Amino acid sequence: METNQKVFITVETIVKAPISKVWELFNEPDHIIKWNSASPEWHTTRAENDLRIGGKFVSRMEAKDGSMGFDFNGVYSDVINNERIAYSMEDGRKVDIHFEANEKGTIVREVFEAEDENPIELQRGGWQAILDNFKNYTENYLLQS
């Protein structure tokens, strides 16, 4: 008997920065294009973000060698400033992101619905790599500011 059980994957990091700065750098397109990639071979060439319930976002991700690229986009279903972002991707999968301040900085936790084409560990690894890039970018950016 086949079940269509949805699988959710969680990735997280702690960014050594105040929650307001983490929120800002996570959501502003000028910053998104600087951290949003899973590996050095990829980059985000364009980002738009209408951060409100019903608002849309799009990030254009491309291989640096020009061999391929795709738009990552969705529509927000919930936005609570400095706390939570929830959205549906273009294919209908759900994502829920939480921001939580603690004594070490800000915890960023993303829970996303897995897709069926790639292994769970590959998906987890890719999303974690992007989140790790965000952490590194944010901490370095704030050191230089």
Radius of gyration: 15 Å
Number of strands: 7
Helix content: 25-40%
Mean of the pLDDT scores?
96
Q: Give the percentage of residues in beta strands.
A: 35-45%
Low-confidence runs of at least 5 consecutive residues:
none
Main sheet: which strands, in order across? Answer: 1-7-6-5-4-3-2
Major sheet size, sense and barrel closure: 7 strands, antiparallel
The tally of helices reads 3
Q: Strand-and-helix sequence, N→C?
A: EHHEEEEEEH
What is the molecular shape? globular
End-to-end Cα distance, whole Å, is 57 Å
Which structural category do the helix and sheet elements fall into?
A: alpha+beta
Overview of the molecule:
- The structure is a single chain.
- Helices cover 28% and strands 41% of the residues.
- The radius of gyration is 15 Å and the shape is globular.
